[in-house]
Amino acid sequence: SSWEGLKSIVMEVKTKVDKFGKITYTVRFYISSLDDIREAARLHWGVENGLHWHLDAVFGADKSKETGKEAPAQLQALKSIASNALRFGIRFFKKGKYTINTLIEELSMGTAQIAKFLSFFSLGGRRREAA
Question: Which residues fall within 8 angstroms of residue 58, CB to CB, at 6 or more apart?
């Protein structure tokens, strides 16, 4: 039988609310030969959340409308570099006192904050000692 080895059936319901408040539901079904497809889904979304969520939340990666042959890939590379720098900055520059969004807000206050942030990278993550 073509269903031999079938072990899991999954129903996914996605809810989307547009800017006018209209709610749309999308229902998808999946079949699998895995005993517990939930574990595979958790692993997948763990990777997705770790690698992509902050790009979308901070930079709107899923809403980007860049056109052209090279532009989307180039802009995504720049967003990834900026995101990694911000995550590094959260952990070391301000010793975990910021989220990515609050660090962006501080850096948007002026060039002095940006210069201080960038100088930290040129020191290889070490704070400059006062002279």
Answer: 83, 86, 100, 101, 104
Per-residue pLDDT at 99? 78
Residue 131, judged by CB atoms within 10 A of its CB (0-12, 13-18, 19+), counts as exposed
Global model pTM greater than 0.70: no
* CB 82, CB 58: distance < 8 Å: no
pLDDT in tens, 7-48: 888 888 889 888 898 999 999 888 888 777 777 777 766 666
Residue reference for tokens 């899923």:
62
Q: What residues form DSSP beta bridges with 29?
A: 11
